[in-house]
Amino acid sequence: MRQDGPASELTSEYFANIYFSMTVWWHGQLIHGIELGPGESRIFSGHKAAPYSDTIAEAMRLYQNRNRVQWTAPPLDWSLITSPFQRQVLQTLFKNIPFGRTTSYGQLAGLSGNSRSARAVGWAMSQNPWPIIIPCHRVLTSKGTIGGFSSGTELKKILLSLEGFFIAQ
DNA sequence: TCTATGACGGTTG
DNA sequence: GCAACCGCCATAG
Question: Domains of chain A by range and CATH?
């Protein structure tokens, strides 16, 4: 008898614009994870693996045109987040820091309940399964420097520039 | 439980 | 401006 875990039921879908690409891992109609990569010479719009695929494809076009992107009710698989703290931080970031705004690790810690948890917020960001949708690229250091990014700080700078920011260094 | 580890932040020299 | 420290917090093992 096979014992299929969630991992065996995952399917992937690829999207890209000229600035960055994203591979979306679906668990049914829920987003299990997102991997970011370099841009492509042409747009890839996925293959409609789920109802929300169209929304993602549209967001890729909006980003390429430097237009505002606002994710509405993304079907994220929150069961993946077992830590209450991490869930609080990710949800706070999603709700409070919209396109075109940035915050710091310390500020996000404060919004999430404890202003001294900046370092733990950094850890939560590093574990974010859904970059771009949960906008961890909008979290900078208190000094305004870039901070870190799982897919590389260059990509973080690109995303910020598409939202109207220019980070020196 | 204890220890090590970080996408941090503030202070100090 | 910067590098060295030190304090803090939430996890992982």
Answer: 7-64 (no CATH), 78-162 (1.10.10.10)
